[in-house]
Design brief:
The structure is a single chain. By secondary structure, the protein is an alpha/beta fold. The chain has 13 helices and 16 strands. A 5-stranded parallel β-sheet has the order 5-4-6-7-8, sandwiched between helices. It starts with 5 loop residues before the first helix and ends with a strand. The relative contact order is 0.10.
């Protein structure tokens, strides 16, 4: 089955709950990414949910609940709002779809949910404390500029909406949660701690190895213990934003989401520095010199059939590096997958060397594209 009608998912959720006298838990009903194809809804529809379909099933669950077709049982101390049972209205839905569709259109019509991931933007929830709002606003604008779909309460919540209800839904519907940390926020009690808890619950449902939570330090501060299992990014450092972008692009690539830039073909030719295909013998490297002004940024896209390193240093350090001496590496990344997206901003005006190194004993084919960023 290539697509699923919204009414079919609603019906499958309600039919399952009809058999469960004491109700059931949301994750049990629609399934999780770690155990694909095992939920009763997937069995009923004869499919294995992809990421968008599971996202849709989650939306259906929340909308059925909002319209009182299912209701919280509060039968569990853990996440009680997601333990639900079918209501009399829900039973009527099964008996007479037309009546309930007319009575509750919002629970049925939520647009065109089965569009491919390639047709949408990466959804990013910006978890933050109110004291960090100014810098988070700047981050929101940067992400919008770079082709993402960030979620920020003051931008996305409409007047009159219940933020206590909408924010957990926004967290669950996101592809990535960027947890913004500062000296004030890590010790601050308040709603930001609830947002982190929501994100941790959703993270438990992600496939192993998926990038979902990105702890993001806005300044030098201690990362809370419950977030230390994930590698964090120091946004305040010279290449902090570029490191964050690299993670977001990897997540987008994993989900099949295309990231586009608003430049025309002439601009692309003008901005391109290198577009090369090379074969690297074992334990060798190639160099791509780039003359950059202070603050100028380059994007590096690399495809290889084996793991390679991408290093960036200034020209003065290169000879020392060849002699195995200590050097000031400005950037280092491993292409542990077939693709690598890297970003670099020049701290000062200088000639920089982008080095692609093959540390294996085997021959490696690489494709390297380097261009000036917008």
């Amino acid at each position: 089955m290539s697509s699923i009608a919204v009414t079919d998912i609603n019906k499958a959720i309600l039919q399952w709950l009809k058999t469960k006298y004491h109700g059931d838990y949301k994750g049990n009903i629609i399934g999780t990414g770690e155990l694909p194809g095992t939920s009763p809804v997937e069995h009923s529809l004869g499919v294995v949910f992809n990421a968008d379909q599971r996202h849709l099933a989650s939306q259906c669950f929340d909308q059925l609940k909002a319209k009182d077709l299912i209701r919280s049982t509060h039968s569990s101390n853990r996440d009680p709002e997601n333990w639900v049972k079918i209501t009399d209205v829900g039973l009527r839905w099964i008996e007479s779809n037309e009546q309930v569709i007319k009575e509750y259109p919002a629970s049925i019509d939520i647009g065109n949910p089965m569009r491919s991931n390639a047709d949408r933007l990466l959804r990013i929830f910006l978890c933050h404390a109110s004291c960090d709002k100014p810098i988070v606003r700047e981050l929101y604008q940067l992400l919008k500029r770079d082709g993402f779909d960030p979620w920020l309460d003051e931008e996305n919540l409409l007047p009159g909406q219940d933020w206590n209800y909408e924010i957990p839904i926004a967290v669950r519907n996101s592809d990535v949660v960027v947890v913004c940390l500062s000296q004030s926020s890590v010790t601050k009690a308040g709603y930001v701690q609830k947002e982190i808890k929501f994100a941790l619950d959703v993270a438990d449902e992600q496939p192993e190895g998926a990038i979902f939570i990105i702890p993001t330090k806005l300044e030098d501060c201690t990362v809370p213990v419950r977030l230390r299992r994930w590698h964090w990014v120091n946004l305040y450092e010279a290449n902090g934003y570029e490191r964050l972008l690299a993670s977001l692009l990897r997540r987008a690539n994993d989900l099949g989401i295309g990231i586009t830039t608003a430049i025309n073909d002439d601009d692309a030719i003008e901005k391109s520095l290198y577009d090369e295909e090379e074969t690297l013998e074992g334990n060798t490297h190639i160099i791509f010199p780039c003359d950059l002004e202070e603050g100028e940024r380059i994007n590096i896209d690399l495809i290889s059939n084996e793991t390679v390193d991408v290093l960036i240093m200034d020209e003065g350090d290169y000879q020392q590096w060849k002699k195995k001496g200590e050097v000031n590496l400005l950037y280092k990344e491993f292409s542990d997958r077939e693709q690598l997206h890297a970003f670099f901003t020049a701290p000062v005006s200088d000639k920089y060397l982008v080095i692609v190194r093959n540390n294996t004993g085997d021959e490696v084919g690489v494709e390297v594209k380097i261009r000036y960023a917008d």
